[in-house]
Write a structure and sequence with these properties.
Layout: H1 6-11, E1 20-27, E2 30-33, H2 37-47, E3 58-59, E4 65-66, E5 72-75, E6 80-86, H3 90-93, E7 100-101, E8 108-117, E9 124-129, H4 136-149, E10 155-166, E11 169-179, H5 183-192, E12 206-207, H6 212-216
Antiparallel strand pairs: 1-6, 1-8, 2-5, 3-6, 4-5, 7-8, 9-11, 9-12, 10-11
């Protein structure tokens, strides 16, 4: 079910043709490493090698509950694997259906795919924005610069520091909330993202209902 949004009700009145979609795949229940970004990308790349040539491509982090036994997340059948891709590549991405991946904690089967349009929302949130530095001020400065290149000025609210282990070493970043976006600005941020490693789950923005949670942290 789509999150209710006054912004979405308004944008339906616009002449809007989506450029980018979220492709949601069913996945089998199992486990996935909590730090799964690079391994998940490599597994998907085995089946969709052309993904490496799509600058807008992004892979959302997979959400699950801590297993309590190791550094894995337990995922159930309600959890989705989500790729964010240009509309033109949606049909090609259907070839992922019926395949299997193993990002490091066992084999996961990939089931049916559903297309979901991006939702314009005045507040957006990313769980991990990385820009090649752990310094919060430097991250904010570079994020503002990238937003300005898109013609966007908004409120930036950094949150918790994050770390990710990659084949090239550890990378650092922060959670980041963007507030007071217009409808078209919101869509632009979701389409382009901010920062590095979007295929590892970084710099991907999704709608958020409130700024209170991040502001408090």
């Amino acid at each position: 079910m789509r999150m209710y949004s006054p912004e979405w009700e308004a944008v339906k009145e616009l002449q809007f043709t989506p450029r980018v979609l979220d492709l949601q795949y069913d996945i089998s229940a199992g486990e996935i490493p909590a730090d799964h970004g690079p391994a998940l990308y490599q597994e998907i790349l085995r089946h969709l090698p052309w993904l490496a040539d799509i600058p807008e491509a992004a892979i959302h982090p997979v959400h699950g509950a801590p297993s309590g036994r190791n550094a894995n997340l337990v995922i159930n059948r309600r959890v989705k694997l989500v790729l964010r891709l240009p509309v033109a590549h949606a049909q090609e991405a259907r070839t992922l259906v019926g395949r299997s991946i193993n990002p490091g904690a066992g084999i996961l089967g990939i089931g049916a795919m559903k297309e979901k349009q991006l939702t314009p929302f005045g507040t957006l949130y990313s769980h991990f924005v990385t820009l090649g530095t752990a310094d919060e001020n430097a991250i904010l400065e570079e994020a503002r610069r990238q937003l300005q290149e898109m013609g966007i000025q908004c409120v930036l609210i950094p949150g918790l520091q994050r770390k990710m282990h990659t084949p090239d070493g550890e990378i650092s970043g922060h959670t980041l909330m963007l507030h007071d976006l217009s409808l078209t600005q919101s869509l632009a941020v979701q389409e382009h993202g901010i920062g590095l490693h979007r295929t590892w789950g970084c710099g991907i923005f999704i709608p958020h209902k409130s700024i209170k949670e991040v502001a408090a942290s």
